[in-house]
Design brief:
Structural class: alpha/beta
Radius of gyration: 31 Å
Number of helices: 15
Distance between the termini: 134 Å
Number of strands: 5
Order of helices and strands: HEEHEEHEHHHHHHHHHHHH
Number of domains: 3
Strand order of the largest sheet: 1-5-3-4-2
Oligomer: single chain
Helix content: 55-70%
Length: 318
């Protein structure tokens, strides 16, 4: 009886270790051809797939040769998969009518997947401010949850440091300044319609309203309804606020005094670059000055000459 019990115990242990071994094997990365309709996009993926020249060339390459570099996906509990790195390659396969795609299937945590997803997309030549903003925010949050263990999960590893913040580590990995990372992440507080104007400034959309990064950061501190009111005013006036105007709006918002009337009043203020400029070609006045005379000295001399001329005119009128 005791022998049977011992045998039963050994059998149970064998089954247990066999199951553990199977789990370890299943957790190892493997390369497979996966049907595209079984692969879901990464949740809240911040990078857009634009049909630009690079994408056209990728579709042509995939159509002719297939995907040369496997995508990275992770298995989901329901038997489907989640794309981690390779959204553009997946889209290219769909456009090229390829039913499956070569993938590396690998188990990973949510935070590991987030960091790898962001790092794998930051090498693109043109990344919009909105894409960077949400990508850095997602990576920052994941790193904080991990306790800054970037030495294990980042595509660009750095030595673990207790003194560095997650934002400082991202700055070192991306080559952007700590302050630039802060400004970009602030953009995630903008309503979509204003954030789109920030992207327009990079895309050089001439027929669309554009906002530079510095004023956009100031506007990100406005309440949501204040931003909607500002957006309506911008469309009506067909202009966007300057950095100085954005700072003024933020101050009024902090004091609880920003409304449609105040926004309209600030937007009506003349910007320095809207003031009419009067210029004289240098070649027309250079003969009156010694060679090498600084521009500022030329301007001061001309102003003094005009003042003397005006004084003489007044004397003649007396």
């Amino acid at each position: 009886m005791a022998k049977n019990s011992a045998a039963g115990l050994l059998t149970s242990l064998d089954d247990l270790f066999s199951t553990q071994e199977e789990r370890e094997v299943a957790a190892q990365p493997r390369v497979e051809d996966i049907p595209i309709d079984l692969i879901d996009d990464f949740p809240n993926h911040p990078f857009k797939v634009r049909m630009d020249g690079a994408m056209v060339r990728l579709v042509e390459s995939v159509g002719q040769y297939g995907v040369l570099e496997p995508c990275l996906i992770r298995p989901k509990p329901d038997g489907r998969y989640e794309m981690v790195a390779g959204h553009r390659r997946k889209e290219a396969c769909i456009m090229a009518d390829r039913p499956s795609i070569r993938c590396i299937v690998q188990e990973m945590t949510d935070d590991q997947a987030t960091i790898i997803m962001v790092d794998s997309n930051l090498h693109r030549e043109e990344i919009l401010p909105s894409e960077k903003a949400f990508a850095y925010k997602m990576k920052l949050d994941a790193m904080k949850r991990q306790g800054l263990r970037t030495d294990l999960t980042s595509a660009t590893p750095l030595p673990k440091s207790e003194r560095k913040t997650a934002r400082q580590i991202i700055a070192e990995q991306t080559g952007e300044s700590h302050e630039q990372i802060r400004k970009l992440i602030r953009l995630t507080y903008l309503i979509p319609k204003i954030l789109e104007m920030v992207d327009n400034s990079v895309l050089k959309e001439k027929d669309k309203l554009q906002i530079a990064l510095r004023p956009a950061v100031e506007l990100s501190y406005l309440a949501e309804q204040e931003q909607y009111d500002l957006h309506e005013t911008m469309l009506t006036e067909d202009r966007t606020p300057s950095h100085a105007q954005a700072i003024k709006m933020r101050k009024f918002s902090q004091d609880g005094r920003l409304n449609m009337d105040v926004i309209f009043s600030i937007m009506q203020e003349e910007k320095p670059n809207q003031k009419e400029q009067f210029k004289i070609p240098r070649e027309r006045i250079s003969k009156y000055f010694a060679p090498g005379t600084p521009v500022q000295k030329m301007e001061d001399t001309i102003i003094k000459a005009l003042e003397l001329y005006r004084k003489r005119q007044r004397d003649l009128q007396r």
